[in-house]
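testing teh design pipeline on a random one, pls ignore if ur not involved
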């Protein structure tokens, strides 16, 4: 939903049936503005994505460092003999 100024607004709505003596008469409901909580949730998901990406890059760096270290050991062994 868009507000008057064109910004996105998120709502949660709750509706209940009001009846009298078992006969459904009308609906009663209200809207709750959840824009701030939705923005916080989106920010949290983005931060979690960034954390996973940085953890992947850290693991890749450790792997590359280990391979370089092993390769250097092999070169040093053959250089000495």
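output:
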């Amino acid at each position: 939903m868009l507000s008057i100024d064109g910004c996105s607004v998120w709502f949660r709505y709750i509706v209940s049936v009001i009846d009298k003596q078992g006969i459904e008469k009308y609906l009663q409901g209200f809207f709750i503005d959840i824009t701030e909580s939705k923005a916080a949730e989106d920010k949290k998901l983005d931060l979690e994505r960034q954390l996973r990406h940085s953890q992947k890059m850290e693991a890749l760096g450790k792997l590359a460092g280990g391979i370089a270290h092993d390769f250097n050991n092999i070169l040093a062994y053959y250089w000495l003999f």
